[in-house]
Design brief:
CATH superfamily of the largest domain: FAD/NAD(P)-binding domain
Distance between the termini: 62 Å
Strand content: 25-35%
Shape: elongated
Radius of gyration: 31 Å
Number of strands: 34
CATH architecture of the largest domain: 3-Layer(bba) Sandwich
Length: 666
């Protein structure tokens, strides 16, 4: 009877830990009448005795002609160094399923491709994650989205205690295979860096898709995760928990449970049986196996500077400056800024509130971000923090996005201290308010903040290049990053091992130069009023909507006034992610009169205040977060030794810098 009309007889070769998992699965499929187990080939007499004692299957010491003649197909589960010899011997006489990788060298891979082309037997490679329930479900999710992601991030690590010293990429090539299975794209550029036994691999695929994988051995737990980023969507896969989470514009919209009664290995072996019986079945063949080995063995080495590695930081605001301070101990750091002074844009044109969390009742994520950062910041900038004055948060009776009860519950839940107390009617129109709380949330003294930062930069011997605009960047042969620098009329180029992009609203300029995926950014051109008022220090904020707030500065009698709606002269999400050249032209349409009029409705004393100056600042925030007004800070590891930071709040600047230093430290 032909094999396509009966159960195929399969011989298992290999009795290691994974080989025993194959044995258990083959026996289970034999009970289901899917196949017949012809036996198992082992290397030692001890293995033979142990298996014979536990299982009623033929056991062979070594691969004999007799054992091979008993089978229609073989399942090779042995170390990669043996794959070439075993496949070469078995393929002329039987169908072959060989565990990944196909072979240890590209030369052996090419030879096996040739042998497979001249054979009538199936040669299937055991890329088992193609049969994982999360991956198979993800394929259906992606088909509905009708677009490819701009970037893919994957983590595949095992506990450090299981490390046997094997090559990281050849042993952990599942991420290459998953991306190949989902998108069928080739890697055109690759960069790899090792940190202990974890390798970070940055790749650019044909069509421009970026991938960043962390592979290897670390910690005590297995990690298996995949994240795909689209223009509006983010798809996060937990392969351990077998769940897929879908986010749209930052909001969680769907959780997919992918749990299956059929383990991936069983699904893979069933596909092998189907391929034996019908050549029309799709399976990971020798071409797939060869492609994945080529991806794993593709040269990703980077030529780094001799001695201390060179780091360029673009942007000398509070975030960029703190990154320089943290990295200076281990790297040769150069800090660039197009302005004539550090901390001169968003770090300066700011309401200097030292956030405790009251301002974000709709974003627990932002509150958590603030609370995680506060100790690091205060340790560095304690003397720049101004305390001992009252701060009032008031919930409007009308048009607030939170009720009085919800705001108080939010404060209690986060253990934010307060008393319910109304300020004087000269400060606040209490008739328009449903509840007011009094706190002592501090502010920063900008001059001291800048002085402390400048002193630390000098102490760390950081090269500070002011009046230096970075106009372009590219990755050169060997992996270094070449920056084009404009200093006055002089334009020149310098190379660095790492580049940190901390340019706030101009975040995507850097991404566009290097072809990295752009972040969806909302741009706000904000008119900030500086006013003088003969009153003590006091901070007032109306929650939570298109209202107004006033915050004292470090100078007595000087305050900043911003109306959440009227101070925004222009708000937009650019299609290309880039800041338009004429963005500040809207500042000609000053809205000072309306800002004052709308603010006086809430703060009566403003009518007697004097406007001393008006500043304009371009804010860049994560787009489409109006539903919770989140202001979190994040680090994007873009690969190829490049990182981009989008700062949310000044209070996060030190903790973000420390996190970055940890990410690139060796």
């Amino acid at each position: 009877m032909k094999v396509n009309q009966r159960r195929p007889k399969i011989l298992l070769i290999g009795a290691g830990a994974f080989g025993m998992r194959h044995l258990e699965t083959l026996l289970r499929l034999e009970q289901k009448n899917v196949l017949e187990l012809a036996g198992i080939v082992v290397r030692t007499q001890r293995s033979r005795e142990l298996i014979q004692k536990k299982y009623s299957v033929p056991v062979y010491s070594g691969l004999s002609d007799k054992a091979l003649a008993s089978a229609d197909a073989v399942n090779i589960v042995t170390p990669v160094e043996t794959h070439f010899e075993l496949v070469s011997r078995c393929l002329p006489r039987a169908h072959v399923l060989v565990e990944k990788p196909l072979a240890a060298t590209l030369e052996d891979v090419r030879t096996l491709q040739s042998k497979a082309a001249h054979s009538t037997n199936v040669l299937m490679v055991g890329h088992v994650f193609r049969f994982h329930p999360v991956v198979t479900r993800l394929q259906r999710v992606l088909a509905k989205m009708n677009e490819r992601p701009s970037s893919v991030e994957g983590v595949f690590t095992n506990p450090l205690s299981t490390d046997t010293g094997r090559d990281i990429e050849m042993e952990m090539l599942h991420m290459f295979d998953i991306v190949d299975y989902l998108f069928n794209k080739k890697i055109v550029r690759k960069h790899a860096e090792d940190n202990g036994r974890v390798r970070t691999i940055s790749s650019i695929y044909s069509g421009g898709m970026h991938a960043l994988f962390k592979l290897g051995w670390v910690g005590n737990d297995k990690q298996r995760s995949l994240k795909l980023v689209f223009k509006q969507y983010r798809v996060v896969c937990d392969l351990q928990a077998q769940k897929i989470s879908v986010y749209k514009n930052g909001a969680h919209i769907e959780m997919i449970d992918c749990a299956s009664d059929v383990p991936p290995l069983e699904a893979q072996l069933c596909r092998f049986v189907e391929a034996i019986k019908s050549r029309t079945v799709d399976y990971p063949d020798v071409a797939v196996g060869a492609r994945i080995v080529r991806h794993a063995l593709m040269d990703g080495n980077t030529e780094l500077s001799p001695g201390r590695k060179k780091v360029a930081i673009i942007g000398a605001g509070i975030f960029g400056s703190n990154c320089a301070i943290e990295l200076a101990a281990s790297f040769d750091v150069t800090l660039f800024d197009k302005n004539k002074s550090i901390l001169s844009e968003a770090s300066y044109i700011n309401q200097y509130r030292h956030h405790w969390g009251y301002h974000y009742p709709r974003s627990q994520e932002t509150v958590n971000d603030i609370r995680a950062a506060i100790d690091d910041f205060e340790q560095r900038y304690r003397t720049a923090i101004v305390t001992k004055f009252p701060t009032y948060y008031s919930v409007a009776k009308k048009d607030s996005k939170v009720t009085a009860a919800e705001f108080l519950q939010f404060c209690d839940r986060n253990e934010l201290p307060y008393t319910i107390e109304d300020p004087s009617d000269m400060y606040l129109n209490n008739k328009k308010i449903s509840v007011t709380i009094k706190t002592y949330e501090p502010i920063y003294n900008y001059d001291k903040l800048k002085s402390i930062t400048a002193s630390l930069l000098k102490k760390k011997s950081i090269k500070i290049r002011l009046n230096s605009e970075i106009t372009h960047a590219r990755i050169v042969q060997g992996g270094q990053k070449e920056l084009t620098i404009k200093e006055g009329v002089r334009v020149h180029r310098e190379r660095f091992d790492y580049v940190i992009n901390v340019t706030y609203a101009r975040y995507n300029d850097f991404c566009s130069w290097l072809g990295f995926p752009k972040k969806a950014m909302r741009m706000d051109l904000v008119e900030v009023l500086w006013m003088k008022a003969d009153i003590p220090k006091i901070s007032l904020a109306i929650m939570d909507g298109a209202f107004t707030n006033i915050v004292p500065s470090g100078i007595d009698g000087v305050f900043t006034l911003v109306h959440i709606k009227e101070s925004v002269l222009r708000r937009f999400v650019p299609k290309n992610g880039l800041v338009p050249k004429n963005v500040f032209s809207s500042s000609k349409n000053s809205n000072v009169d309306t800002i004052l009029k709308r603010s006086i409705e809430w703060f009566p004393f403003v009518k007697d205040a004097k406007i001393s100056k008006v500043h304009y600042v371009l804010r860049g925030v994560n787009a489409y977060r109006e539903y919770d007004d989140a202001r979190i800070s994040d680090i994007a590891e873009q690969g190829f030794g490049c990182f981009s930071i989008l700062g949310g709040k000044i209070i996060n600047s030190v903790s973000i810098a420390k996190a970055l230093a940890g990410m690139i430290a060796k």
